[in-house]
Design a protein that fits this description.
Helix content is 48%, strand content 3%. By secondary structure, the chain is mainly α. A two-stranded parallel ribbon has the order 1-2. A two-stranded parallel ribbon has the order 3-4.
Length: 287
């Protein structure tokens, strides 16, 4: 009986082992077939054919932008930018789209069309006033001579005429050759901060100020407002360009702890001014 059981077990083992070996190739074939099927499905995923045609980045819908070859994540970013009030006012603005490559921009540039409603309003004002649209390429600050064409032209001063730089208003300042609205405004702003000019060289501290205009200005005596260093408030002292916040703090602390500042030499020793700075500051303070 035992011998019969052993023989039966061996026969069963050989039958099961052969069945497994015969089935293995079929399983492998089935796995390969499934993999090929998945690849085929991936290859057959829907795509949008590229269609280069004129478009306005401010109004084009997602389908139009996708048809230009832009990836979906970039299109979503553009739509989000527009939803927040962003505007592409020129083709150059479109070049700032995050992720856009130089190649993509060059390919799309000929097709970018900015609608009139999205152009800068300044172009409309310029047309109404007859502005020729000429702008300075040197910096973001346009030349004052080109600025002046936006407004009615004023008769410019003759070389023999002179103007007090400490009392002239912006209209009078714009009569000086080379001075327009921008520089006239900057002169008045600097004059108010200083309390008046004591030297024409102070005008050259204004960025891009035309040195040729200096010959038209004069500085009469007594045109400077002085600050009493012992009684002026913290705000008044700190607002002066030659004093500032830190030096004002030192002055106020000294006044509170030790009393009056009695002379210019006393102030120079307290605030560590250079001789040149001290000479200039002496024109603006009193004790």
């Amino acid at each position: 009986m035992l011998a019969c059981l052993m023989i039966g077990g061996m026969i069963l083992f050989f039958i099961v082992d052969r069945g497994v070996r015969d089935a293995t190739p079929e399983i492998a074939i089935a796995d390969t077939t499934i993999a090929h099927s998945q690849d085929s499905l991936a290859d057959e995923s829907p795509t949008i054919a590229r269609d280069l045609r004129p478009f306005d980045p401010n109004t084009a819908d997602s389908n139009t932008l996708l048809s230009l070859g832009l990836p979906s994540w970039m299109v979503k970013g553009m739509l989000k930018y527009r939803a927040k009030g962003g505007v592409y006012s020129s083709p150059e603005d479109f070049a700032r789209v995050p992720g856009l490559t130089v190649k993509q921009y060059k390919e799309l540039l000929p097709y970018i069309v900015i609608g009139d409603d999205y152009k800068p309003a300044s172009t409309l004002v310029g047309e109404r006033r007859g502005y020729n649209g000429r702008q300075s390429s040197e910096s973001s600050i346009p030349s004052d001579e080109s600025h002046a064409v936006n407004y009615p032209r004023q008769e410019k001063m003759q070389p023999t005429e002179h103007l007090s730089v400490n009392t002239a208003d912006t209209n009078a300042l714009k009569r000086v050759p080379g001075i327009g609205s921008y520089f006239a405004r900057k002169i008045v702003e600097k004059r108010e901060k200083l309390g008046g000019f004591v030297s024409l060289d102070q005008l050259l501290e204004i960025k891009n100020f035309p040195e040729s205009a200096l010959s038209y200005f004069i500085i009469p005596e007594g045109g400077v407002k002085k600050i009493n260093v012992n009684t002026a408030s913290f705000k008044t002292l700190s607002a002066h360009p030659l004093i500032g916040y830190q030096r004002t703090k030192t002055i106020i602390d000294y006044r509170r702890l030790k009393g009056r500042i009695t002379s210019m030499s006393h102030l120079v020793a307290l605030l560590h001014y250079t001789p040149e700075e001290a000479q200039l500051l002496s024109e603006y303070i009193e004790f």
